[in-house]
Amino acid sequence: MSDDVAKVIRHTVTRLLARREHGFWELIDKLRQKGIEEQAAIDGVMQFQEAGLQSDERFAETIVRNTAAKGQGFRRAKAHLSSLKVDDGIISQGYNEADIDWYAVALAAKQKKFGIETATDLQQKAKQQRFLAYRGFSQEEINHAMTYRD
């Protein structure tokens, strides 16, 4: 790898990581878009990983937390992380590290969209369940949100 290519990799990855956490393969893709060969990109990003500046574990935990903050379920976060080629073990670790009450997130999402009243109309219940399923909540979390009473 030439010094010019190494400099571009260092500059690009530093700039990207200064803004937010990025996954390993996400950084590789961004470098490839700049015309960097894949192996050179991998070698460059691995240097950041070895220095502790890039971490898929931190990235996964950040995505899980951000997903919950947006009122979305873990399934949504898992699908997003999987699309970015993050390992399933790392995704599970991010889930555990985040320590989020997904039942409370599902309830808050339901109440924000539909209010605190429990739906009695079958059509309204179905609409709320579809909404929560689309947001990435499990069936257990949806049932909890649908039947919760103060």
UniProtKB/TrEMBL annotation:
Gene Ontology CC: one annotated term: cytoplasm
Pfam families, A to Z: RecX_HTH2, RecX_HTH3
Compartments where located: Cytoplasm
Source taxon at top rank: Bacteria
GO terms of biological process kind: regulation of DNA repair
Cytoplasm as UniProt keyword: yes
Domain RecX second three-helical stretches: 55-93
Domain annotation RecX third three-helical: ranges: 101-146
Xref: InterPro entries: RecX_HTH_2nd, RecX_HTH_3rd, Regulatory_RecX, WH-like_DNA-bd_sf
Keywords: Cytoplasm
UniProt similarity note: Belongs to the RecX family.
Protein name: Regulatory protein RecX
